[in-house]
Design brief:
This protein has about 220 residues and is α/β, with parallel strands linked by helices. It has six helices and nine strands. Bound molecules: 5-O-phosphono-beta-D-ribofuranosylamine.
């Protein structure tokens, strides 16, 4: 049996995606949860699950380079195989990103490459798209622009608000994120040298989502 992988999860707030990972019975050791905010709700949840937590506050550092260096130092204490960004709301320097190439993934609440950045649900509603969703991707220096591992699509309903749409997307985030981490930890998914993601799967299931539905 290959050694069990170690992961470190980075959060900034509520931590519901982190909690989905903690509950997923993943084939890896969750070494620590690190937040850039001391009052992140997710820290309490992690502690309740008996996971080590740490805070590296961006406010304590003069610039992004200094913060990222401190963050990397804290992460590296745990010698993780993978770094999992679960609602971690800081833009990372290129140096930090390169340090963890192929070992750092992020969950984003849109069907990338559409709607990078923030306020994805409000922007999707504004544009009148009929299908929206979420993506898990490897982190590269391009904000929310790294190679995609898995996505889930949901319909946009005509009376949706950013809140109702967000809840529908979040439900799917909690499904695809543990799947992506499971693939990584089992060495079933990887970032290839050509910058593409490969996932070892026997077959690809799924059905077409048409929104609104056909009569
Ligand atoms: C999620 O929608 C995630 O996709 C985005 O930030 C939100 C974090 O929520 N990056 P939570 O902290 O995981 O509950």
């Amino acid at each position: 049996m290959p050694a069990q992988k170690n992961i470190v999860i980075l959060i900034s707030g509520r931590g519901s995606n982190m909690e989905a990972l903690l509950r997923a019975n993943l084939p890896c050791r969750i070494a620590a949860v690190i937040s850039n905010k001391a009052d992140a709700q997710g820290l309490e949840t992690a502690r309740a699950h008996g996971i080590d937590t740490a805070v590296v506050s961006h406010r304590d550092y003069a610039d992004r380079e200094a913060f990222d260096a401190a963050l990397a130092q804290e992460i590296d204490r745990y010698q993780p195989d993978f770094i999992i960004l679960a609602g971690f709301m800081r833009i990372l320097t290129d140096g930090f990103v390169h340090r963890y190439t192929g070992r750092m993934i992020n969950i984003h609440p849109s069907l990338l490459p559409a709607y990078t950045g923030v306020d994805t649900h409000a922007r999707a509603l504004q544009d009148g798209v009929k299908i929206h969703g979420c993506s898990v991707h490897f982190v590269t220096p391009a904000l929310d622009g790294g190679p995609i591992i898995i996505q889930a699509a949901v319909p946009v309903l005509h009376d949706d608000t950013p809140q109702t749409l967000s809840a529908r997307v979040l439900h799917e985030e909690h499904r695809i994120f543990p799947q992506a981490v499971r693939w990584l930890c089992r060495d079933q998914a990887r970032l290839d040298s050509d910058g593409r993601v490969s996932v070892d799967r026997m077959e690809q299931l799924g059905s077409t989502l048409i929104s609104p539905g056909l009569d």
